[in-house]
């Protein structure tokens, strides 16, 4: 059943749109402070669709992510009391917040450097950095390095594959999509059983 290939073609079409960089920047900013979807979902196809612009896309994503991270930091400093009930009510965010707090206690600024590659959402790190009173300038520098490393890696890998990777993914996307669906179902059954 070819369910995922039409979606894939649509995503690739959107990634070539003139306004796509604006959406990428907005998504990247929002994800760093409050939104759940990471910018990689746009950065990867955009870099694959326009390999010569991959460095620009990674730069845009890094800058807007760090700006969003600064907003998250300010939320942690000035508005944590307002969002703390939301975090406490969500088992996922509550556990992630506790882990991020422990990472800051154990590793300090290094926690932000490795946050870009962590399964804990970056927004949790940015808000927690504000809550624990991490120095702002080291926070920004570590965010630029950590987030930049991730986004440039994604963009360059996709650009390197370019049209050839796009064609291969087009052939395999339905099989990969159904495999992911089966893995998610198996994980849910395992965790509930």
In short:
The chain has 193 residues and is an all-alpha fold. The chain has nine helices and no strands.
Write the layout of secondary structure elements.
Layout: H1 4-15, H2 20-31, H3 40-49, H4 54-78, H5 80-89, H6 91-107, H7 110-115, H8 122-131, H9 136-192
Helix pairs in contact: 1-3, 1-9, 2-4, 3-4, 3-9, 4-8, 4-9, 5-6, 6-8
Summarize the structure in words:
The chain has helices at 4-15, 20-31, 40-49, 54-78, 80-89, 91-107, 110-115, 122-131, 136-192. Helix content is 82%, strand content 0%. The chain has 9 helices and no strands. The chain has 193 residues and is mainly α. It starts with a helix and ends with a helix.
Summarize the biggest pleated sheet: none
- Give, in order, the helices and strands: HHHHHHHHH
- The helical percent reads over 70%
Mean pLDDT: 87
Helical/strand content category: mainly alpha
Segments where pLDDT lies below 50 for 5+ residues? none
Number of discrete helical segments: 9
Strand content: under 5%
N- to C-terminal separation?
29 Å
Number of E-type strands: 0
Task: Please compute the radius of gyration using only Cα atoms.
Answer: 18 Å
Q: Which descriptor suits the 3D outline?
A: globular
